[in-house]
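Handout, page 2. Input:
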Amino acid sequence: MSMSFESYMKDMVQPMRDDLTRIGVTELRTPEEVVENLEGSKGTTLVIVNSVCGCAAGQCRPGVAKALQNEVKPDQLFTVFAGQDKEATAKAREYLAPYPPSSPSIALFKDGQLVHFIQRHQIEDRSADMIAADLVGAFENYCK
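Output:
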């Protein structure tokens, strides 16, 4: 009995996707969905570049979950999955310039403009609580 690599990866990453979708974050799986939801967006939008790495599991996703418990939060919540939904992730990264590709990472937009960005190197050595505090500060500053 053999399982295709694609089936294996789908089963393997689904719990990582669920970490965000179960707290109300919408997945953008295609470049078209990215454009539809980010191009000319109004209000505030959080975009998480998800990843299979340990810092995504231990710090990024839990930090986002904790930050979203704050009363003040973004109007829209989206995620793309690096290494899985490659075309969608590449399209989302066009909106993250001038920052280099980084996964995981977290971006906050206000009226379509990138106003706050947390890169992988700012996630790796920080706790989920520290990431949550960083995000809550950005939410309080930009999402009111």
